[in-house]
Amino acid sequence: MPHVVTQACCGDASCVFACPVNCIHPTPEEPDFGTAEMLYIDPSTCVDCGACVTACPVGAIVPGHRITAGQERFAQVNAAHYDVDQFATDVRFPVDMTKRLPLAPVVTPAPLRAGPQDVAIVGSGPAAMYAADELLRLPKVTVTMYERLSAPFGLARYGVAPDHTATRTVMRLFDDIARHPRLRILVNSEIGRDLTLDELRAQHDAVFWAGGAPTDRPLRIPGVDAAGFSSATSVVGWYNGHPDFADRVFDLSSRRAVIIGNGNVALDVARILTSDPDELASTTIAPAALESLRHSKIREVVLVARRGPLQAAFTLPELIGLAAKSTVDLVVDPADLAGIDADPAEVTDREKLALLREIAARPHDEASGRPVIRFAFGLAPVEVLADAASHRVSGVRFERTTVAADGSASPTGETVDIDAGLVLSAIGYHGVAVPGLPFDEARGVIPNDAGRVMDGDSPVPGMYVTGWIKRGPTGFIGTNKTDSVQTVASWRADVEAAALAR
Ligand code: NAP
Question: Which atom of ligand 1 is nearest to the CA of 475?
Answer without folding.
Answer: 32
